[in-house]
């Protein structure tokens, strides 16, 4: 996709590759002839061979010599960061560097000011801390050192690791900055079942008490909200809920607990890296990047340099996107590409590489928020039903805002999990601190609040003498019930089945016997937890392009990013069910393949008013957003949507008419309208009573007839898909898309104007979550009394995710989520501030992640529920599989020891102290 950004810079974006390796293309292209494959089959993955042979290439794998048309030699950049955020930065002392280690250029904040670069609003703050100021946070960049040769760079890196060049003067204490968000979510249900809510965020809008100053002192100036919600009204209801809980009526059982969860690192395989070259003759900046949000990165780079001084403003930015070696949110809206671009602009004519090693990634990479939570739950003593819930959350957002406000909102709106609670009041505060920046990460705040909730439910079950699974069952939110923001889930609710599976499992039924049979010196316990996790953000979009050639070969392009989520295989399998053959080529992170759509957008899709949306939608090329970051478990649900709808149109208006022609079905034959009854099997199209038709024969006839053989599409979701009608073969055909271009026979793509459009209402921005998937986990732990060591010896996870596009990936995500959950519960932690990663001394010798020896590799059972109906679409599941693991482990530890831990991680020393 190529267009002129608002800054006036021409943007060109493409997927990097293909690169030849191991005898086949190492991009997302199948090695050899594609086999017919329908969704649900167990053989093959698009990227599997490249992955296991080392041919799958990431951004950090590239050097200038690998790029066609680039100079051969690569220069190198080193980003220096602050290990002090309480003293004035006075400058750098590079005298420790000998002649063989000196940089060709040192780029400071003064140089950025001279170059007139602009920080995009999302990343507000100094890109490089100026001399004379206290760094805003630990790990804030101070300077870029640019080296002509790798040897000089490598030598300087080693020297400066031992002799920190940053110099500091007077002590100032941490820099005071406004906090990132303060929100309150309150719901009061109607007095009788089915009655309208008395108060809810969906009715009144989201509310905030005002801007919070450092230290938490509120300034009572209500923040504006898109729908004008009034804080006072909501607060009165919220305080009444808290008074109801505090009164503690005799028929109520109340739990009032504090929880703390820690900061951790995403620990993806590939630390951040990038390559850039500014060609001053062509005035073009060319980059190789690996991010979760290609369009966002490109547009923000244009903003960064759009008003730069002469010599620092390119006329064109060409961004090439490679595979991402792990994301987990850590590469979603990361500022790292800015520094790659700046390195190139300050060393024009020379390709230059900036790549973190693991020490640098710990110091500068985006982290998970640490949470402090105060939670109160009131249960009815007779029935075990939850009557009221209140909580207060404080998140450590670190030095830059990033996604802290969003994580705070999601964690709050998910605070009551899978349960139906009539009175709820939750406040959430995302703080600015001097710590390393926190942002998007797997679980997105739901992990933390679910951990608190599911351990409280277990504690209540014990106090009320109710089986833990029975207590959960009594409180489940059922179909049609309302979440704490006042809206229903609009997808299948499978938690009753999950609880049945957990209850019937031998691990649960045998828990008492397992405790009794524990060897001398060992304690055994079993724990359970269940959760729901939203997928999507409320403003998600998808680009997909599908083409079928006369031989039946299929080519797919999509904008979703491959980051270990198997998106290439997922989109291929979803299309295969519609077009009868697995794709011969799938190319991901492609936002350059949709020019014919001519898409335009405006404003922020999260704050768009209905009036603004209605007016903008008059332009048939307008969409609320063009491309989403690959995040929030949206791969299967969002990432495949546009391609699936494109394939559905190709079948209906290309392959189906061709099949009718081959079968010789006349115009007046009612079988012409049975296209939804036809299906593919073993590469052939089947309709009852007619001979099977080979897919390639149908494709050839479609081309002969000039039928629809290609479609490129855009889809948008705000907790529901936008729907539009397009003129196709005499029909006004309604699809879950908002933009469409089609190709007939072997012709060119032509855009179609939509004759009708229905975008989801802007008021849906008030919804906390509408799409959700569920997972439950059982865990058995063995604890050594002498050492306090906790070992997970057996586990069972059961989940649901709608249509399973790639069974191997779903199970693999569940296994990986289990490992991450175990590490979070028992092993991983990053201290805040000066002892934490911002000091630049953290590496894997200090930061312990789960290894094979920590996991029940041969005793982890994963069960995936079949979808509820043949047409149920795929759900997102990559996050939900991690979340119940943590509280299940904590509940198992309590079952073994009788002690409840409310701070993570639980270490052997913690356990030994309470035994």
Automatic annotation (TrEMBL):
Record flagged with keyword Signal: yes
Source organism, top-level taxon: Bacteria
Pfam families in the record: MoCoBD_1, MoCoBD_2
Record has Signal as a keyword: yes
Keyword terms of this UniProt record: Signal
Annotated signal sequence range: 1-21
Aldehyde oxidase/xanthine dehydrogenase second molybdopterin binding domain mapped to chain residues: 502-589, 777-836
Domain Aldehyde oxidase/xanthine dehydrogenase first molybdopterin binding: 253-476
Name used for this protein in its record: CO/xanthine dehydrogenase Mo-binding subunit
Annotated source species: Xanthobacter flavus
Taxonomic lineage from the root: Bacteria, Pseudomonadati, Pseudomonadota, Alphaproteobacteria, Hyphomicrobiales
